[in-house]
Amino acid sequence: MTPSTLAGVLLLARAGSAMLIGSGVRAPLSVSVCMNVDYGGMAHAGVLCADMEASFAFYRDVLGMDDDTPLRNPKLPFSGAFLRAGAQQIHLMELPNPDPTTGRPQHGGRDRHLALTIRDLSPLKERLEEAGVVYTMSKSGRAALFCRDIDGNALEFIEDATGSAHDRASGIHLGAVPKA
After folding, report:
1. Could you tell me if residue 26 is inside a domain?
2. CA 73, CA 80: separation in Å to the nearest integer?
3. Which pairing describes strands 88-94 and 44-49: parallel, antiparallel, or unpaired?
4. Residue 108 in contact with residue 136, Cβ under 8 Å?
């Protein structure tokens, strides 16, 4: 089927199967490649920064992340650092930022952002307040806060006191059926 013959065709998909409907034709469509993507989680998020040392200090000292920089390839052609946030990493990269750093929404939830789970927001709130970092609480009423790093990148911290998100991040999928 060429792209031009796809006009007016409806694709119905559900777990593991799909049906192509159009021009009076109902035909099964193989979508196994699309339907069986097995994600393991987010390994890391790359964050651009203007001053590596200042950004590293913010993520380590204010946000309380652990230094994972020894895992970084020293042959990379730019200054950078790795920080551990639970089972994931944040890769700071000192590179030119193509995005505007001013004129962003005040509330980070209305901007592109990284979202991290945290067992308790209280210690983070205290650290942010001590450092003079402005934050806003989730507009939906969830136990979540948004702040910006020193380069204007928005960060969301979602409280998950049950630890279920931490278990998922570590590869323990509660209630999941093991693969045969």
Report:
1. no
2. 10
3. parallel
4. yes
Give the tens place of pLDDT for each residue, 33-73: 557 888 888 899 999 999 999 999 999 999 999 999 999 99
Q: Which residue has the tokens 């777990």?
A: 15
The span from the CA of 26 to the CA of 104, in Å, is 48
Closest to 47 (Cα-Cα) out of 147, 146, 157, 149 = 149
Backbone phi, psi, residue 46, to 5°: -90, 130
Strands 154-159 vs 113-118: parallel, antiparallel or unpaired: parallel
Host domain of residue 67: 44-168
Residue 21 lies in a domain: no
Burial of 65 (C-beta count, 10 Å sphere; 0-12/13-18/19+): buried
Dump pLDDT digits (tens) for 137-167. 999 999 999 999 999 999 999 999 886 554 5
- The answer to whether residue 152 sits within a structural domain is yes
CATH, residue 119: 3.10.180.10
